């Protein structure tokens, strides 16, 4: 089910007793929490709404709430985040598992138990996990792809009477790695900046949206592969001057070259490759664009040289800037 389905269930008062919420998009997971909270009127939330973190407090307090009837209301909602007992490494005591199974089989009328699993890797072989997945309504909120993030951006801007330049949109997606959650964090200051003309420009994105370290590493790797020595060295100097630690910067650069090699070995869609590597599909898309431009042998050579540079940084007292300049001259 989707967030829209959940809204419909709330509006029609057609609420199941058990939900499990999965997904990797933080902004959507937070929106889901707000929707579940809205089921209980604000004045009744102290008595009929509770949220527990299983990794911190365990299960017993949540069970005490979910087995008690609503207090002068139609519903009681109990949120349980980080239900690691559904994973391979987590577990319940025999009595806890028996109590939870009993709640699933015979829920208290009006009570809703919401398990917020998020991006936990559920162990579908476990008896309790099988039971939950069989009985619960699954609200799945996967990470949005690049096209969906773009559509969401345009919808948000249209609602507020704003537009965005195509180049500004491309740069915003690049700087936020096409992450819907990160884009939402950056949008308020862009809207404030463009409040007069109601148009977000490339200059606004450049001035206000800080490039993530992965985007900076991508830019630097691109300059290295293009053999633009002066620009690469200047960029490296600027990053160090702005507080980037050379060893970490080298690790980011090494990671970018490693990513190119990993993506080169994978088939399937950007989403499939991203899932296999545990990264956003947008990074896979950028890597594949680079692979169409640069010889794989050159990427391997760069990876080995950067790896050697890291070893020298850790084992010798050599100026990192000198090492990078030497690397660029010899690459």
UniProtKB/TrEMBL annotation:
Keywords: DNA replication, DNA-directed DNA polymerase, Nucleotidyltransferase, Transferase. It is an enzyme of class 2 (transferase). Its EC number is 2.7.7.7. It catalyses: DNA(n) + a 2'-deoxyribonucleoside 5'-triphosphate = DNA(n+1) + diphosphate. InterPro entries: DNA_pol3_clamp-load_cplx_C (IPR008921), DNA_pol3_delta-like_C (IPR048466), DNA_pol3_delta_N (IPR010372), DNA_polIII_delta (IPR005790), P-loop_NTPase (IPR027417). Gene3D superfamilies: 1.10.8.60, 1.20.272.10, P-loop containing nucleotide triphosphate hydrolases (3.40.50.300). GO terms for molecular function: DNA-directed DNA polymerase activity. Residues 216-331 form the DNA polymerase III delta subunit-like C-terminal domain. The keyword Nucleotidyltransferase applies. The keyword Hydrolase does not apply. Residues 19-136 form the DNA polymerase III delta N-terminal domain. PANTHER family: DNA POLYMERASE III SUBUNIT DELTA (PTHR34388). Belongs to the DNA polymerase HolA subunit family. This is DNA polymerase III subunit delta. It comes from Fructobacillus papyriferae. The gene is holA.
